[in-house]
Structures are given as structure tokens and as C-alpha cells.
Design a protein that fits this description.
This protein has 748 residues and is of the alpha/beta class.
């Protein structure tokens, strides 16, 4: 199909499909945000995550859980810092953990020891009491729970947790740890940091004695689900690391002293303009992929419980198997519902926040974090264009069934490619917009085909259904511009078929039987004509008029008509066998074919119109059907039909001048395809050709001798007897001097 024809024929479909593609491209580029697409993308991410996560338990990270049991046995939270100091001493001295991280913030002083109240009593009532003062001073170290807790942190791999504030509240409590990086480390790149206005950090005495601290701020999506965590948050021009990052850095510090985090900045064309180029944070040999907001996707291993949990009360009571904690990274957090550290995640609606940090720690240690850099936007845009244009071009060319198969295969390719990138490239490529684009273009094409093109097919079927088979109606619907009801002159082939002796047949049957006989005769004949791309013009009692070359052009109309005529004669044998079984008479037909210029179109009156053909070539076809009786054959074609089907073998019957025409025409009986002709038939045709040559040169004796010999070889052939009778006539009545061998027929 030529490009111009394709564009013209499918302009509406192409326009609708490209409009859909444009909408999704604008959504991807951020010009026309569609919130529903964000929800679908989140859903697709969650589906991939839950389907492909390992669902194994990682024993490298252990969670000490302030659970309901701990609250029941040790008292309600917050516990005194003296108890926390005992817990820290226990995990390091008794269980020899590698690193302890707190998913808890200690922003206020612990006054539970009563030291503050005793100091007030001293100042008010015992200021001059030497013994009271001495006793109080001796008790102060043991009653200063904050200092005691701070002493337990000293020189140990302890990482405290804290949080940043991002709203209008710029309050600050506690002190921040040493910043991880500053804006100078990023070469002036315009990075979309998560910026903090305030913070809730730990007491200075605690922070100064801890090895490190990390923020535990979540970065939930608009649906409230935690899928990523900011690795760095900016406050006052300085960048602070997350709790998971700080825990890993501290845990590795025993092997790699002074281990620092450094940014990996992309270089090249476009970087530093629209694209800041921060794709990784490097920590020794570990690379942590980050997105444009310096957040990292949480590599959930499975539902809650993917890491060992031990009760904080059991740790304090030394009831935990030492092997479970020895040299492990330990996080202190809570699953108790009342302590409000439960999150919504892709893997579970209610999920302990402390296990989010455990997943991140494990992912960093495995160097197995999914990357979703800003440049995936360009990949998504490219895939949308590629698949969208492919669907736009392909669907108008396909049937509904194949369009469905093609769409499913296209979607499958998109999904498989996406999953390969996820599983083996650790890259999260957007998929929802691509699948929705594919589905939308498919639905628009199918809807257009059903509501618009199907209506056109129904109109064509209404106009031409009585003439042509459904397959041609389908083909016409694909190229409606080629169809016209307006009358035009066109080279075509016409067929006339008539039942021999129909009057005698009808007289011997009841009306009901006659109707049934005609139906059982006309139906298979019509099937044959339709099968060979013919159009039924009309049934005329026992006669059939059909044509080839309209309403659809057909450059092989003559061959299709000839094949149909031969197939009809073959099918008639089966019909007669069926008739014989019912006691009905056998049917014989005569068929005439002619090719020539005919007028075709919708013709008639204001009362009734019909799509039909007219012209001298049509009339000649009708005369040829009538001549089949004169020559004792079932099928006659004109020289014009023969010339257009040269790969068939023919027997020339005569040169005739039919009633109403002055110009003679040669008529032939088709035998079979040239390459299927057997030797005996070839020999007979050669003898017959010589006989006809002698006949036309008025060498009657030679012609008669050849014909008599042929008659002995084929006694059933009436044609030889007919020529012998003509020769006998011409011996007694010689043709005139201008005789050209043409036989004139004065009747129809």
C-alpha cells in the first residue's frame, strides 16, 4: 500500500492514535500531569516489587524490638536512660554486636531519676547541711541518667537517630551531627534536595558521645506508601545522611577507617542544565543509586519479619541466643502499635518503620539497590514514541483478531523488557504509561473500527451484499475509495448460465419440489461464483447472470470467470448425484463467457435501482450461452476472454456472427490448463485444427475425411457431426464468392 493511500484511507485513525500518544508524552514530560498515571505507576512498581522480592530472612541485621512484651515487663515507654544504658552495655559486652542503631530520638533530658527534685530540695532546705550535700554529690553520677546513657555510647559503634522538619515549623531541638557533605561538594549542580526547615535531634551530651547519627525521615508518595528514603537531606547548606547510610558507614569503619561518602556526578552534554547528574553516592566499594531528589528505593526483601526480631526485654534479661547477635548490625526500634512507628509499604499496609532501615542496610551491603535516575524520563519518552508510533501504523492495517494478537505481543515485549531491566539491570523503568498508551491506541482503533468502519461495512453489505460474497465486502471496506455506484465504463467479464430443457423439468415436478430443486441448484452455483470473486447480477428463473471486475477492480477477471465456469460444471456433477438420490431429473447447463468494455453502475428507475452491467459485450455473453446448444458443448468463451487467459488450452468452435452484431467473433471451448493437456487430446486438437482449416478453404473432401477420423476417435462429440453436416450442405449449395468461413446466426 502506498504511503499516500495509507494516510488518506486511515487519516482519522492515525489522528486519534497520535493524539493519544501526544497526551501521554505531555504527561511524561510534566507539561500535562495526569494524577491517575502516578497511581498506576506506583501500582505497577508495587506489583513488580512484590512479585520479584526474594522473600528470605537476612540475619546480618537484627532488630531489637520494643514490643508489647517489653512494655509489659519493663514498663511504659519512654524508659529511663539508665535502662537504655544497661541495654547498650549488654548488647556490646554480652552479645558483642558490631553496630547499634537507634530508630529513636532522645531530644529531652531524662528527669525520671529525681535528681532535679533533690537539687531543688537541697537549695531550699539543706543548702547548709554538709552531710546532705555530700550524700547528694555522691549520688549525682548514678542519678544523672543522661550522662550514664552517654557514657555507655562512648567509644562504641552507636548511631543515634533524629528527624528533620520540612513545614513552616522551623523549631530546633537538640544538636545535629557533623554534616556528611556540603553544597561545595556538588560543583554548583542544581539538585532537588529535600530541604529541612528545622529538626528534632538528640541531646548534645548524647550526640557528642555517639559515633554517628542519621535521620529517619520517610519520603512517602502521594498515596502515603513508603517506597523510598532520602539518603541526604539539606539543612542550612549542609547535607545530612540517613540512618541506614550512617549505620553502614559506622559498621564498616572497623575495617575501613575514616570511610566517607562522596557523590558521583555524571558529566557530558546536557548535564548541569536540566539534568543535575547526581546518580550515585559512593561509600568505599559500595554504590548507592539515587534519584533526582537524592532518594533511594527501599529494597524490601519481603513482608515484615524478613529480619530476625528479638524482644528488648529478653536482651535486658540476657535470654537471647548470643549467636544471633554476635558481630551483627542491630537496630533498636518498636513494633508496638501505641508508639506510632508503623508505616504503609508496598509489601504490607502496616509495617514496622525500623525494618525499612534494615532493608536499606541490607541492600547497601549487597550492592543491590534499584536505580531510578532522572534520565529514565528520557527512556520512557523514547519508548512511548517507539511503541506508540508502531501501534499507530500497524493497527489500521490489521484485522481485529490480528490487531488484538499484535497488541498483546507488543505489551508482552514491553513488560518482558521492563522486567529484564528490573531483574538484571537493577533499573526501574516506568511501565504504566507505556501499557496504558498501548491499550488506549488499541481501544480507539477497535472502537473506531466497530462504530465507524463497521457501519461502513454494513452500508456496503446493504448495497453489495446481494451481489458479492462477504469476503469481498470486507475487502471493499478496506478500500472504500475504490467503490462507486456511479456508472462507468470498465473492462469486465460477464457470464450467462442457463438450464437446458428447464420447461420439461418443471412440468414433471410439483411446485414445492421445483422450488427446492432450484434452491439446491442455485446455491452451490452461487458459492462457486463467490469463491472465484464473482458478483451475482441476477437470477432469471433458471438462469444466472454474473460478472467479474466490479465493484472491486480485478485485473484477472477473465481467468477468475473461466475458473468459476469450469468449477460450476464440476459442482453440477455432485448436484446431479444428489438429485438422482431424490428421484429428480439431472440438470444440464450452458455457460457463455465474454470479456469486453461494459457499463457498470447503479441503474434503474426512481422506483427501483440495481447495480448491474450493460453494453454490447454483455449481449454477446448472452448470445454465447445460447450457442452452447448449437455446438453440443457446455461452455463457450469468446476470443476476447481466451486472449486474456492464454495459459489454457482451447478448442476453436467456429467464427460466428450473432444476431444484432455485424462483426464476427471467434468462439472457443476451454479444455483445461495448457500444462495439464494429455497427448491424445493434443493430437486430436491438431487434427481438428487442420480439418477446420480445410473447411474454411472449402476443401470439403479433406475436411470431411479428417472429421470422420476424429468422429471415430470421439464419437460422443457432436461438433464433428455438425461440421460434416455443414460440408454436405455446402456441396449442394455452395457459399457465395465472398464467404469468409463465418457462420451467421439469425436467432438468439
Amino acid at each position: 500500500m502506498k504511503i499516500a493511500q495509507f494516510l488518506s484511507q486511515h487519516m482519522t485513525r492515525l489522528g486519534l492514535s497520535l493524539s493519544i500518544l501526544l497526551i501521554f508524552l505531555l504527561n511524561t514530560s510534566g507539561v500535562l500531569p495526569i494524577s491517575a498515571m502516578d497511581r498506576l505507576e506506583n501500582f505497577s512498581y508495587d506489583t513488580r516489587l512484590t512479585a520479584l522480592m526474594p522473600n528470605t530472612i537476612d540475619e546480618r541485621v537484627v532488630i531489637i524490638d520494643i514490643d508489647e512484651k517489653s512494655l509489659k515487663e519493663q514498663g511504659r515507654w519512654p524508659w529511663g536512660r539508665d535502662k537504655l544504658a544497661t541495654l547498650v552495655d549488654t548488647v556490646f559486652d554480652e552479645y558483642h554486636v558490631n553496630t547499634l542503631g537507634f530508630d529513636v530520638v532522645f531530644a529531652e533530658r531524662d528527669e525520671s531519676s529525681g535528681l532535679k527534685k533533690l537539687a531543688e530540695i537541697q537549695a531550699k532546705h539543706f543548702n547548709d547541711n554538709t552531710q546532705f550535700n555530700a550524700t547528694l554529690n555522691a549520688l549525682k553520677p548514678s542519678l544523672d541518667f543522661d550522662q550514664r546513657f552517654a557514657n555507655s555510647l562512648k567509644n562504641r559503634n552507636v548511631v543515634l537517630g533524629y528527624f528533620f522538619l520540612r513545614d513552616a515549623d522551623a523549631s530546633q531541638s537538640g544538636v545535629l551531627p557533623t554534616p556528611t557533605l556540603s553544597s561545595n561538594d556538588f560543583k554548583g549542580r542544581k539538585i532537588q534536595w529535600m530541604q529541612a526547615t528545622g529538626f528534632g535531634a538528640n541531646l548534645a551530651v548524647l550526640q557528642n558521645n555517639a559515633k554517628a547519627a542519621g535521620h529517619f525521615n520517610p519520603d512517602p508518595d502521594v498515596d502515603g506508601v513508603s517506597r523510598k528514603v532520602p539518603m541526604l537531606i539539606e539543612h542550612d547548606g549542609k547535607m545530612y545522611e540517613s540512618l541506614a547510610l550512617a549505620v553502614v558507614r559506622t559498621a564498616l569503619s572497623n575495617k575501613i577507617p575514616n570511610l566517607k561518602i562522596s557523590p558521583v556526578l555524571a558529566e557530558g552534554v546536557g548535564v548541569g542544565k536540566q539534568y543535575a547528574g547526581l546518580e550515585w553516592l559512593k561509600l568505599g566499594n559500595f554504590e548507592i543509586p539515587v534519584d533526582e531528589k537524592v532518594s533511594t528505593l527501599i529494597p524490601y526483601r519481603g513482608p515484615q519479619g524478613s529480619f530476625p526480631y528479638v524482644s528488648a526485654s529478653d536482651v535486658l534479661n540476657k535470654k537471647v541466643d548470643p549467636a544471633l547477635l554476635n558481630n551483627k548490625i542491630v537496630l533498636l526500634g518498636t513494633t508496638a502499635a501505641g508508639l506510632m512507628d508503623l508505616r504503609s509499604t508496598p509489601v504490607q499496609n502496616i509495617y514496622a518503620g525500623v525494618e525499612i532501615h534494615a532493608n536499606l542496610i541490607a541492600g547497601i551491603l549487597d550492592n543491590n539497590l534499584k536505580q531510578h535516575p532522572a534520565y529514565t524520563l528520557g527512556i520512557e519518552f523514547t519508548l512511548l514514541v517507539l511503541f506508540g508510533v508502531l501501534m499507530t501504523i500497524a493497527l489500521p492495517l490489521l484485522s481485529p483478531l490480528w490487531a488484538t494478537v499484535f497488541t498483546l505481543l507488543t505489551a508482552l515485549v514491553a513488560i518482558v523488557t521492563n522486567l529484564i531491566a528490573w531483574q538484571y539491570g537493577n533499573t526501574v523503568l516506568p511501565i504504566a504509561s507505556l501499557l496504558v498508551t498501548i491499550a488506549s491506541i488499541y481501544l480507539v482503533n477497535m472502537s473506531y473500527g466497530y462504530f465507524v468502519e463497521a457501519r461502513g461495512k454494513k452500508q456496503l453489505a446493504g448495497l453489495f451484499g446481494q451481489y458479492v460474497p462477504p469476503e469481498l465486502v470486507e475487502e471493499m471496506a478496506k478500500n472504500p475509495e475504490r467503490i462507486s455506484l456511479e456508472s462507468e465504463n470498465r473492462e469486465m467479464t460477464v457470464m450467462f448460465s442457463d438450464v437446458r430443457g428447464f420447461t420439461t423439468i418443471s412440468e414433471g415436478l410439483e411446485p414445492k419440489q421445483l422450488t427446492q430443486l432450484m434452491n439446491e441448484f442455485l446455491t452451490p452455483m452461487t458459492h462457486v461464483i463467490h469463491h472465484h470473486r464473482g458478483a451475482i447480477d441476477k437470477y432469471m428463473g433458471d438462469a444466472i447472470m454474473a460478472f467479474w471486475g466490479a465493484p472491486l477492480p480485478d485485473k484477472h477477471h477473465a481467468k477468475h470467470a473461466l475458473l468459476a465456469a469450469l468449477a460450476m460444471l464440476k459442482a453440477l456433477e455432485t448436484v446431479n448425484q444428489s438429485f438422482a438420490a431424490k428421484g429428480w431429473p439431472a440438470i444440464q447447463v450452458g455457460v457463455g463467457l465474454n470479456t469486453g468494455l461494459m457499463t457498470v453502475g447503479n441503474m434503474g428507475s426512481e422506483f427501483r435501482m440495481a447495480y448491474t452491467i450493460m453494453g454490447d459485450a454483455v449481449n454477446l455473453g448472452s448470445r454465447l450461452e445460447g450457442l452452447t446448444k448449437q455446438y453440443g458443448v457446455q461452455l463457450i468463451v469468446s476470443e476476447f476472454t481466451k486472449d486474456q487467459v492464454p495459459d489454457f488450452a482451447y478448442r476453436e468452435l467456429d467464427i460466428v456472427r450473432v444476431k444484432g452484431k455485424n462483426k464476427p467473433v471467434a468462439i472457443f471451448e476451454p479444455i483445461c490448463e495448457e500444462n495439464a493437456l494429455d497427448k491424445s487430446t493434443k493430437d486430436n486438437l491438431k487434427l481438428y485444427k487442420e480439418a477446420v482449416k480445410y473447411y474454411r478453404s472449402q476443401q470439403w473432401d479433406l475436411a470431411e475425411m479428417q472429421l470422420i477420423n476424429l468422429q471415430k476417435l470421439e464419437p460422443q462429440r457432436y461438433l464433428y457431426r455438425m461440421y460434416i453436416e455443414r460440408i454436405a450442405y455446402f456441396r449442394h449449395t455452395s457459399p457465395d464468392a465472398n464467404w469468409d468461413g463465418v457462420f451467421n446466426f439469425d436467432t438468439k
